[in-house]
Amino acid sequence: MIITDNHMHLHNHLGLEAIKQFKRAGGTHVILISNLAHHYGVFPLKGEDFVRIYDRHLSVVREANEIVRTYPVIGVHPAEITILGDKLGYERASSIMKRGIEIAVEYIKEGRAIGLKTGRPHYPVDEHIWKLSNEVMRYAFELAGDHAIPVQIHTESYTFDGMKEVSEIAKEAGLPPEKVIKHYSPPEPGEFARTGIFPSIIAGKDVIKAVEQNSRFVMETDYMDDSRRPGAVLGPKTVPKRVRELLSRGVDEEIIWKICRDNIEKLYEIDLDSS
User: Fold this and answer.
1) What's the burial of 245, exposed, middle or buried (CB within 10 Å: 0-12/13-18/19+)?
2) Which residues pair with 229 in a beta bridge?
3) pLDDT tens across 211-248, in order?
4) Dist. CA 127–CA 90, nearest whole Å
5) What contacts 201, CB < 8 A, 6 or more positions away?
6) The pTM is what?
7) pLDDT recorded at residue 160
8) How many helices and strands (H and E) does the chain possess?
9) Integer Cα distance of 275 and 270 in angstroms
10) Residue 215 structural domain
């Protein structure tokens, strides 16, 4: 059976041992997301500095791929707007971020990654920073829309109105909302279907609520691999464990296939069976 974690990080805690734990628990495929720039010891002064970040991330993906089939998603974390902006000014930060996104799109077009990462801050910011953040996200959507690239977004906590707004921004930018994947989603695939946004649901115990609605979602741990928070958000074994739990509760195996294989293949236009 194919069991996919749609959103995981590797940083400075377990490292590749996290991937080994995922495999031992029954996991078969993982999508690794690039981290904040400072996790790579980089403070970007220009967009081209993201090349170092992406290349480091792809190197980690290659190592992880020796353990289970691993795919990279790269891009610019929306929190960079304040991390960079507090020191360089917010307009300059947004310009650096846009250039970093352009470079990520070039990598994806070359087949070096399967998706783009963008979004807007998940914490309170003033109106000016919020406006700039939405402009960066819109720009990412425009570039993604030009090349049919799936986009994982890191945003504020879910609200229907918030996701409806993101959906409208995507449509205006030329990106189908179905290609926008909301990382760290609650178990509400029915609500997400109304916006068009595709949810990547945290694989907590209440994921059964999602299955009871429909199978239009994927699952993730958002495992952060941060030595300061070693178990955050969920451990690397969680998705395989949750799949076993769902099966034990009578969830049809075809639904698991839809969540862990079919939806992933459709979103990223990849073939997991050939991996």
Assistant:
1) middle
2) 226
3) 999 999 999 999 999 999 998 999 999 999 999 999 99
4) 12
5) 185, 186, 187, 189, 207, 210, 217, 218, 219, 220
6) 0.97
7) 97
8) 11, 8
9) 9
10) 4-274
